[in-house]
Write a structure and sequence with these properties.
The complex is a heterodimer of chains A (297) and B (296). Chain A is built from 9 helices and 10 strands. With 297 residues, chain A is of the alpha/beta class. In chain A, the strands form 2 sheets. In chain A, strands 6-7-8-3-9-10 form a 6-stranded mixed beta sheet, sandwiched between helices. In chain A, strands 2-1-4-5 form a 4-stranded antiparallel beta sheet. Chain B is mainly alpha-helical and 296 residues long. In chain B, helix 7 crosses helix 10. Classes of the chains: A alpha/beta (297), B mainly alpha (296). The interface between A and B is medium-sized, with 34 and 26 residues.
Chain lengths: 297, 296
Amino acid sequence: MQHSQKNVSSASPPMPRSPFQEASGDRRPTGSTPAIELRQVTKRFLTPRGQTYTALRDLSLSVAPGEFCALIGPTGCGKSTTLSLIAGLDSPSAGSVLVMGEEVHGNDPRIGYVFQTDAVFPWKNVLHNVAAGPLFRGVPRREALERARAWIARVGLAGFEDRYPHQLSGGMRKRVALAQTFINEPQILLMDEPFSALDVQTRTLMENELLQLWSALSASVVFVTHDLEEAIALADRVCVLTAGPATIKGIYTIDLPRPRNVAEIRFDPRFVQLYHDIWEDLRDEVMISYERAKHSS
Amino acid sequence: MSEPNTLLERQQSIAHPTAETDSAALAALVRRRRRRRWLINALRLLLLVALIGGWELGARLGLIDSFFWGRPSGIWQQLVTWVVHGTAQGPLWVQIAVTLEEALLGFLIGVVLGISFGVLLGRNAFLAELLGPYIKAANSIPRVTLAPLFAIGLGLGSQSKVALAVVLVFFIVFFNAFQGVREVDRNLLANARILGANRWQLFREVILPSALTWIIASLHTSFSFALVGAVVGEFVGSIEGIGLMIQNAGATFNANGVFAAMLILAAVALLSEIVITALERRLLRWRPSALSEVTL
């Protein structure tokens, strides 16, 4: 699969960069097999004290091919757990997780994952960090490095190939992480609060770039965040999760037109309306989780 | 100044020098730093001269009994005698070579064994739990006390010294390798797995580089322990080596001889430290340099 798709990135020149413009194209969910499907998923953990902790309870969710779905919920409600189940890093206690109609077993090469914290390899320079995926998957070295260079240019880091992660700013490291994930051309992209550590300006910039990269890739995205503005600005659909154990509280279709400019869409009256509606739902969960945190401490 | 500072913003600011006053200020800064460097070196030299001069003076004035505590000029004479006429056991360089060889061999074997077992147990929770108490018990034994045992079992040749050095080095490297493997960032492991790494790639590209920080830190201490192993082994029973020289000097109330042999050992240890630091620089190039620049 890697080989059949490689031309897309290596042969075609990097897209013209216009950070506030996302390539157009309608990508409403279609009626075919969902890219990701969670059926009545429950996940329990054993705490060190020997008690069980239920992170997810009867969570059902389906993401259409090419859909951008945001999961939002209070801190510690099981959003990340959901992602690790889809990625095959962990398995559900009950229920089933399907990717492209098949049950998840271990790692699926069609999945890409962008982590909340820096997960770039500190001992590899930018070039080898980005080339890591293809190299792991057996792409010949020359070709892997060539593709990595193209992707580095595409995320705006040309000239930084020899730098090590500690020599880069937080935003630049995030670009490396994006290139590292996108170079594998995932059909499913899981993102766990990827921009939460960035300052607000860098964050808006990165959100726009993400939309731009995503529109060229046509992957299904599950984007976990606790920031409602970010969720609405990016997603086709926003799923509100309850305070742990997480289950779906409400699903909202975001009918804002694409291409979107994340920096400006916040002023759109429709955006404000959606924000207001979803916040009504989210607020209760946030309060519950806040009260719990207060009592447990 | 070491490597160029790399944030995009800084590059831009460097690319647009505002005025010539900047370069003048910079020159002043460089001058001040150079002067400080010079002062520190001068004071260091002065301190050394004062220390050795004080010792020598004290010995000559009879404040320090040079029969028991030696004196710098005597130590120097002893060194010259050894270099020119050789030691009681033969030429000086042979003694150095023997001890160095024992230490080096013990060091290498200990490091290889330590890393292998550290990684094995670090990756295998079952084995770690099974062997944990025994390893802790073995580690709590003061291991130099094994020297007589090795001398009995392996004889007066170099094997008994190498064995002692191996035992001393092994545990230091082992615990560091073990800890290093355990401390690998879980996110990095998950990331590598999702990017497509198999078990071997995971080990070579993520676990090993991550543990290397710990392992290399342990090499600094472990080489001095290898030297201790070789020298103590020679104390207990040997036919050549620096340890034997110290043993002989002590037995004949030659305090200067003990100090002179100590100086030779210190020089050997210092040289090895330089080699290991160079190795560290090479292998850990990816680390922020600020950490390695402040050294004592």
